[in-house]
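re: ur question from earlier - yeah i can do the single chain one, its not a big deal. heres the input i used so u can compare w yours
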Amino acid sequence: MNIANLRYVSEVQKSGSITKAAQNLYMGQPNLSKAIKELEKELGIMIFRRTSKGVETTRRGEEFIAYANTILSQIDELESLYQPKTEHSIQLNLSVPRASYISVLFAEFISRLDRKEHMDIQYRETSSMEAANDVSSGESDLGIIRYQLIYESYFLSYLKGLKLDAHPLREFTMQLLMSKDHPLAQLPEVSYHMLAGYTEIVHGDLQVPSLSFSDIAVGAEMEAPARRIFVYERGSQFDFLQHVPGTYMWVSPMPQELLDRYDLITRACPLSRLSNKDVLVFRRGHQFTKLQNRLLTFLKEKGAQ
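and the output i got, formated as tokens:
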């Protein structure tokens, strides 16, 4: 028994005629009849009963074809997932940090693509370490990782060990993100010590070597005990910032449209002077597709704004 035999009996049942099924399968009727008889002999059951009007499926045949159709459906799904797509198909696999400006840029990029083409896009938000590992293992074609410039030599060495190359995208300093109703929102600049007693929202899987702000300057420790909410899904941070009084978080530059949508503001902090860097990572020797080159050009143009 093979896959072809399963397709044969499935088509005969749909057509109700061996002759018509043979035409649909682009094969000779004698060959199809022979294949079905051999399958019936192999299974020890009668799948079809021949009548003057064509063929009828037996009870055992109905049962067998039900199983056959399930198998064929799974095979078709596998082929759809893994068969090579046409050169015009849209395929992207990305692993990126939980950065709002990146998701907004990528959404704009996708909106410009040809909507008539086959599209298969994987967009995963994760930690920088996981993004690098995704690209190294082949789980993602491209990734974006973030680190403080003070740790650049560490990260470049880490990427070299994974046989990854990096292309710079954007440098920035972190900002404070908070609700417009936050008690500190009216200040043009927020001192680090003013955050004492307020609740910080932190991405819980941020596995990146970095200095805490209390390590950046001597005597910057907060007097009040630390208050933190750890989140693992970026969307939830906006709910907390909107509805939990006194919450804030450190973020990369935020798109104005998101600030307006969630009634949020950003404020500078004199202590956050360390530069951060977002870089695109890819496997050494990676051959960029036309679509990936378009994405890289787009990110360089938009990301630097």
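The chain has a mean pLDDT of 86. not sure if urs matches, ping me
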